[in-house]
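Internal ticket - ligand job 170, FE2/S2 (inorganic) cluster:
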Amino acid sequence: MPQVTDRIGGRGDKKRLPGHKEEDARPRTDGARADEFQPKILIFACNWCSYAGADLAGVSRVQMPPDCQVVRVMCSGRVEPELVISALCRGMDGVLVLGCHPGECHYTQGNYYARRRALLLKELLPYVGIEPERFQLKWVSASEGGKFAEVVQEMVEGVRRLGPVGAEWG
Ligand code: FES
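stdout (C-alpha cells):
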C-alpha cells in the first residue's frame, strides 16, 4: 500500500509531475494570478495508462499547475478510500485518482472497483466535513497527455473555487 505520508510535502516540496522540470511550472500561463490561492492536489495515477499520460504531457511540455504531486500506483483500484481521506486531512486541498478507461484495466476490473468506491467516498466525505468535489476519479489513457493536463487544470480550478481544505474547520 502506498504511504501517503511519504509523498505529501509542503508548498515548497520539489516533487514535480513526471516529465516536468522546475522551470516548466513558471511563469504562470494558466490564467491564475500570482497572489491567487494555489491548491495542493495529490494525483494517484495508474502506472499503465494515466502515469504514461502524465509523462506524455510532460514530454510535450504542456503547462501544468505547480502544486500537483503524482503518486504512481499499479491500478486505480489500489487507492483505498482511507488514503484519500488521509491525504485531505493532512493538508492536500484535492485528490485526483486517474485510471485506465473502463474495459482497459490491466487487472481486468480494478477501475470498476475504483468507480464503485468513488461513488461511496463522495457520499462519505460530507460526513467528515470535506466537500465531495475535492475528490475526483477520471480516466486517462497513455496517449491522452492533453486530456491529463485538462483534467488536472479542471480539478485545480474547481478546488480553487472551494478554497483551502479545512478552512471551515476553524
Ligand atoms: S491498471 Fe489502470 S486502472 Fe487498473
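Auto-summary: The first strand starts at residue 41 and ends at 46. The pocket of FE2/S2 (inorganic) cluster is lined by residues 46, 48-49, 75-77, 99-100, 105-107, 110-111 (CB under 6 Å).
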